[in-house]
Amino acid sequence: MIYAAPMLIPSCLRRAPLAGTLVLLTALGGAHAQHSGRIAADQVQEIGRKRVYMGREIAQTMHWRGADWLMRETRENEENGQQLRAWLDVGRGASVADLGCGNGYHTIPLARAVGPEGRVFAVDLQPEMLKLLDRRVGEEAARLGTPLNVAPVVATIDNPHLPADSCDFVLMVDVYHELSHPRRVLQAVRESLREEGTLVLVEFRTEDKSVPIKPEHKMTKAQMIAEMAANGFVLAAETDELPWQHAMAFAPFPEPEAPADGSSMTPPPLGAQAMAAGFLDALRRDDPRIVAPFLDRAVMIDGGLPWAGKDTAVEIGRWMKAESAPLVPEGTKAELTRVGTGHVTGRLLPPEGQSVFEDRVLIELNRDENGLWLVDAWHAAP
């Protein structure tokens, strides 16, 4: 039994300007995501003084006394919040959450966008941040001559305390990497989303070494996709237009279940499907830095000696520059077959009449000790 990954856009983002944005929502049996999807049992580990989740160090939360940094004069040039909000295309009357809102860099523009008939939940762990936000909301309302519908919510470390089925999307800007209890928070976010709602993560790019942010406050696309899939979310839309950050929207999706016909063949896990789709996405980006995090430490090429993952990414970069056409054309799909508990094979099927890596069309993914599904081999078709 083979499982493919077609493409779909959640309705809350259909009006967004998605030019150049790949939409990768893994369709499992064609059913829409339901909020009852199972959550993987990955746990946060204590390693020395570090807290680690799926191989990633969890960063410390910024203290409210550093709130002025959130409103620094250079932030718009570094992050381009206006471009981000244009991509989100927030409409009048929408109900959204700014989780980890701080003193309102995004909250106030979002409140202006949704208007008095909409609502913005301003969620933060620190009540002091919400006091600073309340002052700014009052000043902006006085300037506009109309109230802003901002609902402050004090979160706890494992729960944003958002009402169920209340949000068209939940936005986390430079926040997710600091969550001390990511699984519990993500479960609560699922419950807060309306039908076809999405979770939008914005994180500084690990792949770009020129981004002057501490490593523990950055994430790769691969890590974001892997952690979201482990908690029942798949990539639905993204933009590469921000100066320093990834902006990625994720839709809730359940883990695939065994076939109803009683077949012994079980479908590939959501994590493997999400990472295969993300790998194809990375191959279209013409940037080996994005490809590298999807690769295992050693990658077997056509049954020969294994290559280091970084060397493989560099070689892929050379192929990208040498080819006049994309190596992975738009419309290429990964059809996956589950081989074992931690092993999946997949065929890359391009649109008819086009090629992918000439004849290299078989990939293999294995799950590592951190729960990440990584590409560790590709072979020529038999």
Describe the structure.
The protein is of the alpha/beta class. It has one domain: Nuclear Transport Factor 2, Chain: A. 24% of the residues lie in helices and 27% in strands. It has 9 helices and 17 strands. Strands 4, 5, 6, 7, 8, 9, 10 and 11 form an 8-stranded mixed beta sheet that branches. The two termini are 19 Å apart.
Whole-number mean pLDDT: 84
- The tally of beta strands, per DSSP, is 17
Total helical segments: 9
- The CATH architecture can be given as Roll
Topology pattern, helix = H, strand = E: EEEHHEHEHEEHEEHEEHHEEHEEEE
- How many domains? The number is 1
Radius of gyration: 21 Å
Strand content: 25-35%
* Parts with pLDDT < 50 across at least 5 consecutive residues: 1-42
CA(first)-CA(last) distance: 19 Å
- SS class: alpha/beta
Give the class-level CATH name: Alpha Beta
Quickly describe the structure.
The protein is of the alpha/beta class and 382 residues long. The protein has nine helices and 17 strands.
Task: Please write out the topology.
Blueprint: E1 45-47, E2 50-53, E3 56-57, H1 75-79, H2 81-88, E4 95-99, H3 107-114, E5 119-124, H4 127-144, E6 150-154, E7 167-173, H5 182-192, E8 193-205, E9 218-219, H6 221-230, E10 233-239, E11 245-252, H7 270-283, H8 288-291, E12 295-301, E13 306-308, H9 309-322, E14 333-340, E15 343-349, E16 360-367, E17 373-380
Parallel strand pairs: 4-5, 4-7, 5-6, 7-8, 8-9, 12-17
Antiparallel strand pairs: 1-2, 2-3, 8-11, 10-11, 12-13, 14-15, 15-16, 16-17
GO molecular function, one term: transferase activity
Signal peptide: 1-33
Organism: Saltatorellus ferox
